[in-house]
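Q: Got a minute? One more chain.
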Amino acid sequence: MNLLEDYMNLNTHEQEDEEEGGEHHNDAVVNVRHNWFEQEIYSDVKWCLALNRVEFRGTSEFQHLTVLSTKGFGKALVIDGHLQNTELDEYIYHENLVHPALLIHNKPKTVFIMGGGGGSAAREALKHKDIQKVVICDIDMNTASLIREHMKANHAAFNDRRLQIVYNDAMYELNKSEEKFDVIIGDLPDPYGSESGSSHLYTKSFYEGVVKAKLKVNGLFVTQAGPAGIFTHKVVFSPMYNTLKQVFTDVVAYTAIVPSYGDSYGWIMASNKPINLDGEQLNKRIDERIGGELKYLDGPVIAASTVLNKTLKNSLVEETRILTDQNVNVGYVRKPGVCINA
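A: Always. Here it is, folded:
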């Protein structure tokens, strides 16, 4: 499918550059001077990134993609108006998504990634020397290809013989698979209501009937769980935690600051076996298992990230919402971002 230029919800207003005679460019790369990308991260609070230019805008059958060149964070990916990650700090998100579960598991060999077509989660999983197979299952081949074209950091991962790529709905792909996996990773957009294309992959029935069924006996599931700040954690983080508590016997939530998000972010691990968070043991496994060096995590940091502040901790205890096929409504939904003149 050819990607068509699409202004989606990300409207660009170009400002004349006096030094260049006020020229406007109508090329594939749309030059923007002194502009900002802004998005409301919660009610009455906006987060802004200064822009050099908009490098690409396009739409596929499933979603809208924009690639921004930012002044402070390098290239940034925006899907359906929502910031996904930036070159400068995406490693924080992806290290936290992948390594805690792989290090806690005693002997992981196989990994299934739901989403993650850009390859960053696979890149991190493939750093583990004993991993024999990583499967990326992403529904959108066109957007995944474009992300790989614009974000170069993951090219080596796509040349790794251990990596397999499937373009399909993750529920369908797992259901038909005869294989079970040591670790299943959810690297999907937030479930913003029933209209979200990924909402069915966040429900109790999916976790119980598909994810748990496709994990090996000692398997772990881990998923991104949305913003986890003081004012934002009740949207996705706490109902997702409570939903997983209905399915798995041991569920652990953890958080980290991701600078480009302007907020804390959350992830949740779940298993039917005890999740051991011994910092020294995790450090030993990092030394033994991982080729190269992690930029953000070590054993004690992994353990410390599970210590939540009192506000979050109380919210997780008190949360009663469960994400179901009939009700995937969450709280305040972030509005799509826009590009504006300074």
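A: The first strand starts at residue 30 and ends at 42.
Q: Perfect, thanks.
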